[in-house]
TrEMBL record:
Gene3D superfamilies: 1.10.1390.10, Glucose-6-phosphate isomerase like protein, domain 1. It is found in: Cytoplasm. Catalyzes the reversible isomerization of glucose-6-phosphate to fructose-6-phosphate. The gene is pgi. This is Glucose-6-phosphate isomerase. The keyword Cytoplasm applies. PANTHER family: GLUCOSE-6-PHOSPHATE ISOMERASE. One of its GO terms (molecular function) is carbohydrate derivative binding. Its EC number is 5.3.1.9. It catalyses: alpha-D-glucose 6-phosphate = beta-D-fructose 6-phosphate. Pathway: Carbohydrate biosynthesis; gluconeogenesis; Carbohydrate degradation; glycolysis; D-glyceraldehyde 3-phosphate and glycerone phosphate from D-glucose: step 2/4. It comes from Methylomarinum roseum. The keyword Chloroplast does not apply.
Length: 547
């Protein structure tokens, strides 16, 4: 057994043990004390890069905490692992693949070799094809089967083939071409398709069927519904080529479905679904905002890639954000993380982050297949501010749980309306202040509150948050923001020694659903071999549907 700390299990690493001891010493320290002891804390514990400012001073950490967390990152060989990712090594070990999403935004002319091929050249070839297609649609030159221009674009996909495109479309709506209608269908619940298409004319509608594997039940079911919907009105199989395009890595299945591979935009197995909004999966985004804005978004992603790859950990935004979350998760027993974009355009950002963080790091075994003896991904959730303030913020302020929060705000609004942006941001800043510093019983009583009511009206504080400030929401700043979280997730995965790029946990449910679908359908009573609960639920459902 080696004593080299590089090979020790996580909880036996010197930095991990030191963090444990350290957490006992600092866990009761209040942010009030930390700020009082260092009047410049709010100026010191910040990181600024072009277009993005992170204030992490309102965290329950000391300089020693940061030092130990960075030591832990070093002990876990984070620097080497970052290089492995950028160099295209097969870091997704359970699937034997690279995780090369950073190649999707590498500038034209860059070289990243994988199996003897420069993948950047392939990426740009697809981007160029996407651009031509997007411009044709935007200029009303892509005509439907009956000669009318396509004006409605419906993206069919789920998970990474939906959440990124929807989030980006909503986020960049202000830059979108408003005479195009964009819709998104993901759920196998027929309601999703029916509601998304009820006011659309098939003659002027194009479906983008997005699926990395092109075998996903929900997507193929919805794609078949779309096909029927089109053919009902257009009555001619020839129509499909004008009304359907596919985004996939699986040309075989695309062909089998009946979409001409000339109408297919490819991507690669080295790009995971939840890391693919900047690949051809973002075709709907490009159609909505145009190729130039899409490329500006890629530049934002790339700027964060460069920052992550080359900046010392002490000033590295994704690394610091990852380590802070790890601190609460593993040493202060926090179970969840909340994200609050103070920006209505980012309303789908929390949902997007849920897949990114929880599908990536919701793992219980190490890369070597051993059970972990520490917590991995926390539960990620959130809502745009200020809406959340009037629903669940009560729990954040006075509940019993520790929930670290990320607040995201912009200096400038894309829709200045009176003083509303000032009000929005005043709320953002006020919440972080209230969470951190609270209001003591003594302060409450001093304001005249009777003794019996004072406990109810006081705020303990010491509730941590980060504040991310950006200039304004643009394609570039969106790219920066998404890449920031991508790399934060990766950093945590490295420390937890898990595979952040597989998702075996979704397979069992998929297999059982396939079996159950057969049992729900047939006219004859099926032989059921589930547990007594599932058997009864199936029988009951059948009784109501099959009489
Ligand atoms: O079931 C989970 C998942 O595999 C996600 O990882 C993925 O983003 C989603 O399904 C959709 O997969 P596909 O793009 O292959 O249809």
């Amino acid at each position: 057994m080696t004593h080299d700390s590089n090979f020790l299990p996580l909880t036996q690493r010197p930095a991990w043990k030191a963090l444990h001891t350290h957490s006992e010493q600092v866990k009761d320290t209040h942010l009030r004390e930390l700020f009082a002891a260092d009047p410049k804390r709010g100026e010191r514990l910040v990181i600024e890069i072009p277009d993005l400012y992170l204030d992490y001073s309102k965290n329950r950490i000391t300089d020693e905490t940061l030092r130990l967390l960075i030591r832990l990152a070093n002990e876990c060989q984070l620097r080497e692992r970052i290089e492995s990712m950028f160099n295209g090594e097969a870091i997704n070990s359970t699937e034997g693949r690279a995780a090369l999403h950073t190649a999707l935004r590498a500038p034209e002319g860059a070289r990243i070799m994988l199996d003897g091929v420069n993948v950047v050249a392939e990426v740009h070839a697809v981007l160029d094809r996407m651009s031509v297609f997007a411009e044709q649609l935007r200029n009303r030159q892509w005509l439907g089967h009956t000669g009318k221009p396509i004006v409605n674009i419906v993206n069919i996909g789920i998970g990474g083939s939906d959440l990124g495109p929807v989030m980006a479309y909503e986020a960049l709506k202000s830059y979108s071409q408003r005479n195009l209608t964009l819709r998104f269908v993901s759920n196998v619940d027929g309601t999703d398709f029916v509601e998304a298409t009820r006011d659309l004319d098939p003659e002027q509608t194009l479906f983008i069927v997005c699926s990395k594997t092109f075998t996903t039940l929900e997507t193929l079911t919805n794609a078949r519904a779309a096909r029927n919907w089109c053919l009902q009105k257009l009555g001619d199989e020839q129509a499909i080529s004008r009304h359907f395009v596919a985004v996939s890595t699986n040309a075989e299945e695309v062909k089998k479905f009946g979409i001409d591979t000339d109408n297919m935009f490819g991507f690669w197995d080295w790009d995971g679904g939840r890391y693919s909004m900047d690949s051809a999966i973002g075709l709907s985004t490009m159609i909505a905002v145009g190729p130039n804005h899409f490329r500006a978004m890629l530049e934002g992603f790339h700027a964060m890639d460069e920052h992550f790859r080359h900046t010392p950990f002490e000033r590295n935004m994704p690394v610091i954000m990852a380590l802070l979350k790890l601190w609460y998760n593993n040493f202060l027993d926090a179970q969840s993380v909340a994200v609050f974009p103070y920006c209505q355009y980012l309303k789908r950002f929390p949902a997007y982050l849920q897949q990114l963080t929880m599908e990536s790091n919701g793992k219980h075994v190490t890369l070597e297949g051993a059970n972990v003896d520490y917590q991995t991904a926390p539960i990620y959730w959130g809502e745009p501010g200020t809406n959340g303030q009037h629903s669940f913020f009560q729990l954040l302020h006075q509940g019993t749980r520790l929930i670290p929060c990320d607040f995201i705000g912009f200096y400038k609004s894309l829709n200045p309306l009176g003083d509303q942006h000032d009000l929005l941001m005043a709320n953002c800043f006020a919440q972080t202040e209230a969470l951190a510093f609270g209001k003591t019983e003594a302060e409450v009583k001093a304001e005249g509150t009777p003794d019996w009511l004072a406990p109810h009206r006081s705020f303990e504080g010491n509730r941590p948050s980060n504040t991310l400030l950006l200039d304004r929401l643009t394609p570039r700043t969106l790219g920066l923001l998404v890449a920031l979280f991508e790399h934060s997730v990766f950093t945590q995965g490295v420390i937890w020694n898990i595979d952040s790029f597989d998702q075996w946990g979704v397979e069992l449910g998929k297999a059982l659903a396939k079996k159950t679908a057969g049992e729900l359908k047939g006219a004859d009573e099926p032989q059921l071999d589930h547990d007594s609960s599932t058997n009864t639920l199936i029988r009951r459902y059948r009784r109501f549907n099959r009489g």
